């Protein structure tokens, strides 16, 4: 039986160039993911750990939301010690979908 080493597998990332527009739109349509993207847009690269977001979901659901954002080419993650930190791939996403992220970020959230 293999022993656990305490290391997590590095997350897989999809480059925005490989993302269909419907995948990007679906990722941005979820209210929780929209909060994550908006908060990342207002934060410096690699300054926000996954647990630093105030969203009404548990840890497993939060991991799922980050996986969707990675799969849509919106977020890049890396491990720094025990923390997984995040970066919004704004420049890369903007090159693939010009104006989409800015449009989503300037929309006023609804209740």
Short description, anyone?
This protein is of the alpha+beta class. The protein has helices at residues 21-29, 31-41, 59-71, 90-96, 100-106; strands spanning 48-49, 75-80, 83-88.
Identify the notable features of this structure and list them briefly.
ArsR family transcriptional regulator; alpha+beta; Arc Repressor Mutant, subunit A; single chain; ArsR-like_HTH; HTH_ArsR_DNA-bd_dom; WH_DNA-bd_sf; 5 helices; 3 strands
What does the secondary structure layout of this molecule look like, with pairings?
Blueprint (H helix, E strand, L loop, with lengths): L20 H9 L1 H11 L6 E2 L9 H13 L3 E6 L2 E6 L1 H7 L3 H7 L5
Antiparallel strand pairs: 1-3, 2-3
Helix pairs in contact: 1-3, 2-3
How big a fraction of the residues is strand? 5-15%
User: Termini separation (Å)?
Assistant: 50 Å
Determine the CATH topology: Arc Repressor Mutant, subunit A
Overall number of strands: 3
Q: Any low-confidence stretches, pLDDT <50, length ≥5? A: 1-5
Protein name: ArsR family transcriptional regulator
Domain HTH arsR-type: 13-108
InterPro entries: ArsR-like_HTH (IPR011991), HTH_ArsR_DNA-bd_dom (IPR001845), WH-like_DNA-bd_sf (IPR036388), WH_DNA-bd_sf (IPR036390)
Report on the structure:
InterPro entries: ArsR-like_HTH, HTH_ArsR_DNA-bd_dom, WH-like_DNA-bd_sf, WH_DNA-bd_sf. It comes from Streptomyces spinosisporus. This is ArsR family transcriptional regulator. Residues 13-108 form the HTH arsR-type domain. The protein is α+β, with helices and mostly antiparallel strands and 111 residues long. The protein has a single domain (16-106), classed as Orthogonal Bundle (Arc Repressor Mutant, subunit A), CATH 1.10.10. It is built from five helices and three strands; from the N terminus they run H-H-E-H-E-E-H-H. The chain has a three-stranded antiparallel sheet with strand order 1-3-2. Strand 2 and strand 3 (83-88) form a beta hairpin. The N and C termini lie far apart (50 Å). Mean pLDDT is 90; it is low at 1-5.
């Amino acid at each position: 039986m293999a022993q656990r080493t305490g290391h997590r597998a590095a997350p897989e990332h999809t480059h925005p160039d490989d993302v269909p527009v419907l995948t990007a739109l679906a990722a941005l349509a979820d209210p929780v993911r929209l909060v994550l993207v908006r908060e990342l847009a207002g934060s410096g690269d690699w300054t926000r750990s996954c647990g630093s977001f105030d969203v009404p979901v548990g840890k497993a659901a939060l991991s799922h939301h980050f996986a969707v954002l990675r799969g849509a080419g919106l977020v890049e993650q890396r491990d720094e010690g025990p923390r997984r930190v995040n970066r919004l791939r704004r420049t890369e996403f903007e090159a693939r979908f010009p104006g989409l992220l800015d449009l989503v970020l300037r929309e006023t959230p609804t209740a």
